[in-house]
Amino acid sequence: MRSIVGSLIALLCLSASAVAQDMDDMAAPPPDQKSEDAKFVAYDQKVIAFTHAEIVDGTGAAPKYDQTLIVRDGRIAGLGPHVRVPKDATIIDARGKTLLPGFVMVHEHLFYPMGRANYGSMHYTFPRLYLAGGTTTARTGGSMSPYGDINLKMMIDKGEAIGPDLDVTGAYLNGPGFPVPKVHVLTGPDDATKTVNYWANEGATSFKAYIDITRAELKAAIDAAHARGTKITGHLCSVTYREAAELGIDNLEHGFAVMTDFNKDKKPDECLTGSQQALASLDENSAEVKSLIDLLIAKHVALTSTLTVFETFTPGRPKAPEQALAMLIPQLRKQYEDVWSKSASNERMKPYVTIFPKLMKLEKMFVDAGGTLLAGTDPTGYGGVIPGFSGKREVELLVEAGFPFPQALKIATLNGARFLGRDKDIGSLEQGKRADIALVDGDPAKSVSAIESMPLVFKKGVGYDSAKIFDVLKGQVGLY
């Protein structure tokens, strides 16, 4: 088994417990489930006025206080300190509260690790949890069930289910060696082209290269994706970051955590062990690191921060919160807790005590040099990264990495919207944009932990009661 950095699958195998059967083929919820979602709606009025609110708008600007924000027909119709409140508005007194744009997360999944290299599709629980946690737009960072994801996207678009707008990534683009039966094995560049075109025809809007792809296959996939007007990202190992940037990739996943550029024994087109050791010993201030950062920026390659999943690998880091773990079926909760409790003595995890803060520093260096950093949460590994809670945690970790809260929020909102080509419509709180709004109790600009209290999330001007969603979905993740 290769290192965790080369493949997050390794940590799944650490669990000794046999967990629930894979749910990938479970049928979609019946149509009458739409009426059940209606009970989660707290506000659905034509005109809503938030008064006396603090605004952190997602552009990176400093917070603004005592603001009025008007929502009309699902759009932001007015925003400022002296905006007139329409007579027909439903008023929400936002004293002591902060309004944020809905998160735009670009490394999410609609599956969860079930143990024994199985991933169960969570097409009912996950979209609702993502929404309750403030994520109003999400790109799936890889799919084990592309048809399920595409069909779910269409259901959400039609109003038949609630959840974030989805940018659906097609089937993983990977070569031989990955021990997950659901992942197609590419047979060469022609197959890479064919696979991209097939899933683009079926409705995929993004693509993802994976750890065992060859340079020739990656080049073919990049060219095919770009010919279809779509973007391609990668969680790479066999191909280095420098090679991928030169080939024209748009995005690289997991910040600098999975790069193999500094592995001493790296061979072309091979994913070998050694990533952890290379990262742990890497001098992040070296000329070689600066050269790689400069190249990524020059080639306009965005990086996606997924500090949430790497936090789970790091001994001494906090356990997933009780409220999040309560969403899991007992078997999945045990799977996570068994591994987490033994993390301090786990030889595979020990290097992350050094690696994790280094990843934070490298992401900050990349942004400070002019790079585009995006945000995602990646609910994989051995568990514990749970939608509804992980998006907020990712923002907290970006602040811990040294980003001021407004900048951390921009990474998790406007940067993602721009990357997806949707920044004219979403990603920030600005007049004319869609009313995707998270309401937070307190001031996260002063104490980022305030973001944990997010009682209301608005998408297209409809306000959802987060607590009601969490309450209904307790103990459901792992079932559907």
Question: How many strands, which pairing sense, and closed or not: the largest β-sheet?
Answer: 9 strands, mixed
Q: CATH superfamily of the domain at 9-17 and 153-429, called what?
A: Metal-dependent hydrolases
Rg for CA atoms: 21 Å
Compute the number of strand runs. 19
CATH classification class of the domain at 9-17 and 153-429 = Alpha Beta
Distance between the termini: 29 Å
- Tell me what portion of residues adopts beta-strand conformation: 15-25%
Q: What structural class do you assign from the helix and strand content?
A: alpha/beta
Average pLDDT, all residues: 93
Share of residues in helices: 25-40%
Shape: globular
The third-level CATH topology of the domain at 9-17 and 153-429 is TIM Barrel
Number of helices: 17
CATH architecture of the domain at 9-17 and 153-429: Alpha-Beta Barrel
Low-confidence stretches: 3-34
SSE diagram, text form:
Layout: H1 9-12, H2 33-37, E1 41-43, E2 47-55, E3 64-72, E4 75-80, E5 90-93, E6 97-101, E7 103-108, E8 111-115, E9 118-121, H3 125-132, E10 135-140, H4 146-158, E11 165-167, H5 189-202, E12 206-209, H6 215-227, E13 231-234, H7 241-247, E14 251-253, H8 275-281, H9 287-298, E15 302-305, H10 307-312, H11 322-325, H12 330-341, H13 352-368, E16 373-375, H14 390-400, H15 405-411, H16 414-419, E17 437-441, E18 456-459, E19 462-465, H17 466-472
Parallel strand pairs: 2-5, 2-6, 7-10, 10-11, 12-13, 14-15, 15-16
Antiparallel strand pairs: 1-19, 2-3, 3-4, 6-17, 8-9, 17-18, 18-19
Helix pairs in contact: 3-17, 5-6, 14-15
